[in-house]
Design goal:
The protein is an alpha/beta fold. The chain contains ten helices and nine strands. The chain folds into two domains: 6-100 and 179-277, Rossmann fold, CATH 3.40.50.300; 107-176, no CATH class. The strands form two sheets. A six-stranded mixed β-sheet has the order 5-6-7-3-8-9, sandwiched between helices.
Length: 278
């Protein structure tokens, strides 16, 4: 894809773990001759992702989603293969690359626990070398859109989980990244907070055209936000296409009179079928 934000070729990541032998004698021999087991966290992956897309990355625990996110954001190195993200090799971690991306991993906070969010945003503005006046205008504007402007001067640890996640999203967008990795942004949140965050992300992408890679166990997030669906099973991408195409193709495969499933049920059924084939 010309002008792709993300381009990978045969990108994969393996982990080796020590295979502990049984028995004392074999354990002693293991000091000199060790056997290892290889786990394929990500099998050869070829992707091309353009600007302004929201990619829904779905799979069971251990399917390889977080490994793929960490590779594309440069947190880990691949075993083999190549990747180009925003014109950079991500694991080289060059400053000009890092200022173009943002990574929000589950409940891992980038804000300071004992500080009001506004103070954390000021520190982030210093780190990213942003104009302090414009940075403050931006975080106030984002807070208004997320309906949490009255929480900016309260210590982060005193906020509810939903309000904390909103602050984390503001911090992630403060430097206007071109690529945003969101890992479970609505996990544990109440229905109102989930809807507020989904509405905000949908509007933000339409206006600013960043690319978002979104993982979530809440299928409403994927169904309502994603333009494109990547389904992963045991380290492999087993489906890559539009959400509507996936739903329609699965509906066409169902026998007449068979009970219809909601989106989450269709996803679960598909992944179970893929796992049984492997």
């Amino acid at each position: 894809m010309e002008g792709a934000v993300i381009q990978t070729h045969s990108l994969c990541r393996d982990y080796k773990t020590y295979k502990k032998p049984s028995g004392i004698l074999n354990s002693i021999k293991g000091f000199w001759n060790r056997d290892y087991l290889t786990r394929h966290a990500l099998r050869p992956c070829n992707l091309s992702i353009g600007r302004g897309q929201i990619i829904g990355l779905v799979g069971a625990n251990g399917a390889g989603k977080t490994t793929l996110l960490k590779l594309l954001s440069g947190l880990i190195h691949p075993t083999s293969g190549t990747a180009e993200v925003l014109g950079h090799v991500p694991w080289q971690r060059k400053p000009e690359f890092l200022t173009k991306i943002s990574l929000l991993l589950g409940q891992k906070s980038q804000l300071w626990w004992d500080l009001p969010s506004a103070d954390s945003f000021s520190l982030l503005a210093e780190i990213y070398e942003l104009d302090p006046v414009k940075a403050k205008e931006r975080w106030i504007a984002l807070a208004k859109r997320l309906r949490c402007e009255d929480q900016l001067d309260i210590q982060l640890r005193r906020l509810s989980l939903g309000e904390r996640m909103k602050m984390e999203i503001i911090g992630s967008l403060l430097h206007e990244p071109q690529l945003l990795f969101l890992d479970e942004p609505t996990i544990g949140l109440d229905v109102v907070a989930q809807e507020t965050i989904r509405d905000f992300l949908d509007e933000y992408v339409k206006e600013s055209q960043p690319t978002i890679i979104l993982t979530s166990h809440y299928m409403d997030d994927i169904f309502e936000l994603a333009d494109r669906l990547l389904l992963m099973s045991q380290g492999s991408i087993v489906f890559d296409g539009e959400v509507d195409d996936f739903v329609q193709s699965r509906a066409a495969q169902r026998a007449q009179g068979e009970e219809d499933l909601d989106f989450e049920g269709v996803i679960r059924e598909f992944l179970e079928e893929e796992q049984s084939r492997r």
